Amino acid sequence: MKPLSTFAASPYDIADLHLFRDADMTSASALLADCPVMVAAAGELVSDPAQPRLVIVLRGALADATGDGATTKILPGESCGEQSVLDGESDLSGLKALEESELLLIEADLVWRLIDESDGVARNLLRLLSFRIRAANMQLRRRQKLGEFYRQLSMNDGLTGLYNRAWLNDVLPRLVATAHGTRVPLSLIMLDIDHFKRFNDQHGHLLGDEALRTAAQVLAHALRPSDFAVRYGGEELMVILPATSGPVAAGVAERLCERMREAVVFDDMRLPLPHVTASFGVASLAEGQDEQSLIAAADAALYRAKEAGRNRVEVA
Ligand SMILES: Nc1nc2c(ncn2[C@@H]2O[C@H](COP(=O)(O)OP(=O)(O)OP(=O)(O)O)[C@@H](O)[C@H]2O)c(=O)[nH]1
After folding, report:
1. Where is each GGDEF domain found (predicted)?
2. Is 43 exposed, middle or buried (0-12, 13-18, 19+ CB in 10 A)?
3. Is there a contact between 256 and 218 (Cβ–Cβ < 8 Å)?
4. Helices H, strands E: what count in the chain?
């Protein structure tokens, strides 16, 4: 940055600077008279001084990088560096001239004098800082929402929208521990679409995907909000039923089996139902059983349902 003049010798008017809006201009002008006006070339970093100071853009524009890729544009009349002056920390290193710019620099001591001597300046600074805090809070909330969105994304299967294996590995052990701890039942249904290889071969992989989505919707629509549907593997799905006994879970599985039979995969209504069927294995958590052995029990029941002719429910 090169020195150009003092503020008093420059053509700029204090009335155009936001910090002095509605403030006593005469006394503020006198205090600012000897402050340096500097010129920064396009792209030049507005260097980090040993002493924190306030920078006011008189002409051109600055970009203030906040460190997470976001930038704020500072236009003529606007200022930056207020916080560094107030807390005594210098943080101007992210400040860069977007074009050739003329800047008014006010050292920290002088900012404090301006605050002491002008209620208007103090009020404007408070307003500015409260605006910045609001903006920072909003950004934080946006980032939290984005984080939640990605967390959800990593826990859901992209094709069906059901929970995925990562979710299951995280949650099932906890559900099992809670069930043991509270002595409340927990049931699990494993289901597998019947002859899905044949379905894919006959109708193509895209329609196979559609059949899987349809099966997932059958589960999503038929379950209570407290139940969970998971895509366990390729065409193997799982339903977790907290606080549900074996006989009740068997009833739920029967209902799902029936809804699957009635589900529409092909829009062409000339094709008779069922478009897909599934086989179901039901197991309930036994005393001392862990999640792996609960899954194995449901899987074994599912295998028996397949062996017995498919499109049916077997209970462990
Ligand atoms: N379209 C589609 N097919 C899948 C997907 N995941 C797994 N599959 C297919 O599912 C089929 C599973 O076949 P198998 O394990 O032999 O079982 P099946 O043909 O359903 O026979 P049964 O289970 O004994 O009734 C395979 O052909 C896989 O390619 C998927 O995401 N989309």
Report:
1. 184-316
2. exposed
3. yes
4. 9, 13
Domain assignment present for residue 55? The answer is yes
The reply to whether 118 and 207 lie within a common domain is no
**Percentage helix, strand, coil for the chain under 3-state DSSP, each rounded to 5:** 45, 20, 30
Same-domain status, 310 and 170: yes
Ligand 1 site, residue 163, Cβ cutoff 6 A: no
Is the CB–ligand 1 distance for residue 192 below 6 Å? yes
Question: Which is more confidently placed, 161 or 91?
Answer: 161
153 assigned to some structural domain: no
| Host domain of residue 125 | 2-140
Tell me, yes or no, whether 145 lies in a domain.
Answer: no
pLDDT digits (tens, 9 = 90+) for 204-234: 999 999 999 999 999 999 999 899 999 999 9
Q: At which of 103, 124, 140 does a domain end?
A: 140
Distance 152 CA to ligand 1 centre (A): 26
Question: From edge to edge, which strands make up the β-sheet containing 101-107?
Answer: 2-6, 36-40, 101-107, 53-59, 79-80
- Ligand 1 contact via 196 beta carbon (within 6 Å): yes
**Does 194 share its domain with 265?**
yes
pLDDT tens, 29-48?
999 999 999 999 999 988 66
User: Which residues belong to the active site?
Assistant: 235
Give 90's pLDDT tier (boundaries 50, 70, 90): low
Nearest to 55 by CA among 26, 23, 11, 94: 94
CATH of the domain at 58: 2.60.120.10
Average pLDDT over residues 182-202: 96
The ipTM estimated for the assembled molecules is 0.93
Domain tally for the chain? 2
Q: Are residues 178 and 307 in the same domain?
A: yes
* Tens of pLDDT, residues 265-281: 988 777 878 899 999 99
Smallest CA separation from ligand 1 atom 11, residue: 197
Domain boundary among 123, 140, 157: 140
